[in-house]
C-alpha cells in the first residue's frame, strides 16, 4: 500500500479553469426603481369619456428590487431578486457596471433570483433594471444601484476535481473540496451556489462529508455513457459566518465515456471486468493480507501512474515498511490502496491474499487494465474485513441513494434534483 499526500491533487484542482454558462461569482445587484407599465394615465373625452374629464387609469406599481437602491458593501456573489406587488414573475434583469459594461446572467428555474454568470468586481458600482409581469397582467419595472464590497482578506480555499475537456468514467462524482471545511450551518448557502447540469438530463444530489472538507455530487445511478457534465462552483465572494469568503469560481465541462466497471470478490480472489454491461475479462487478484486488509466498498479510479514508487518507511510496523517501484498503478483511496501490477505475487494471485491492502494483478493484466481504464471508472471490492471509510477516496458510490441524499444541506426532491437553470 503506497502512501501519498493529497496536496498534489489539491493543487491541480485549485488551478482549474473552464468556461460555463453560469460561471463566476455573482454579486448582489438590484435596486428598486420606478416601474412604468399598464395603460396611459388618462384618455380624452373625444376618445370616449362622456364626462369630458380625464379618467385616471391604473399605473403598475414599481418592483421592489434587492439589493436595495443605494446599498453599499455588497458581496460579489450577490444575486438579483425582485418582488412584484400582489405577486407575479420576474422575466428580465439587465445589470450594468459604471463603465456601461453589461453583466451576463440567468434566472434560476424557480424564479427566485437572477445569478450573474461571472463574479462581480470588487468595489464597483452596478445598476440593475428588473422587469416582470404581475398577476394583474401588467408589466412592472424597477431599478437599483448598489456598490460591491472591497476584496476581503479572509478567504476559503476551494478545489474542483474535474478538469475542462477531459473524459471520465461513469462513476466519476463531481468533487468539491474546501480548506478549511465548511461548518454545517453554512453548507446550505454554499450548496445553493454549486451548479451542475447534465446532457442528457439526469437528476442528482450533493452529499457533504462530516467535516465539511468535501462535497460529492452524483446521480441515483452511474452516469449514462456519453453524458456531458457542466459544473460551476460559484463561490467567489460567498460570505460565511466565520468571517471568511469564497475565494474564486471554479468551472469545468467534461464528458463521460463508455461504461467500464471492475468487481472484485475476495472469496474467489477474482476481478470481473465489464464494458457496456458485458463481461470482457476475469483477472486473478491478491488482496490485502490479514493485518493489512483491502477496503470493501465501491471506489473509483482517482489517478493513474504508469510507473511510481511506494515508500512506506513511515509505517509504525517494521514489517510494513518498504520502498518499491510499482508499474501500472491506479489509486482508489487516499489511504494508499491501488490496483497495480505485482509480479512478485503472480504465483498466488487468485488463491492467497499477500498485499498491503492493494489489488495485486499480474504484469500483463496490470497493463491491460491500465490501457483501458479512465479516472472515474468504478471498482467494487466485496468480502474483506475492512469497510471503506467515507472520504477515504471519492466514496460517493459506497452508500445507497437514500444514505447519500441524507448528506445534502438542502432538501432533495424524490428521485433527485434537477439543474438550477
Task: Describe the structure in your own words.
Helix content is 7%, strand content 34%. It has 3 domains: 28-35 and 61-147, Immunoglobulin-like; 155-256, Immunoglobulin-like (Sandwich); 260-395, L,D-transpeptidase catalytic domain-like (Beta Barrel). With 421 residues, it is mainly β. The chain is built from 4 helices and 27 strands. It has helices at 7-14, 187-191, 363-372, 401-405, and strands spanning 64-66, 81-83, 88-97, 102-103, 105-107, 114-116, 125-134, 139-147, 155-160, 167-168, 174-179, 194-199, 205-208, 214-218, 228-233, 245-246, 250-256, 260-265, 270-275, 278-284, 295-300, 303-311, 323-331, 338-341, 359-361, 378-382, 386-387. The chain is elongated, with a radius of gyration of 28 Å. The strands form 7 sheets. The protein has a 6-stranded mixed beta sheet, with no helix packed on it. Strands 13-14-11-9-16 form a 5-stranded mixed beta sheet, covered by helices on one side. It has a 4-stranded antiparallel beta sheet with strand order 4-3-7-8, with no helix packed on it. Residues 2-57 have low confidence and may be disordered.
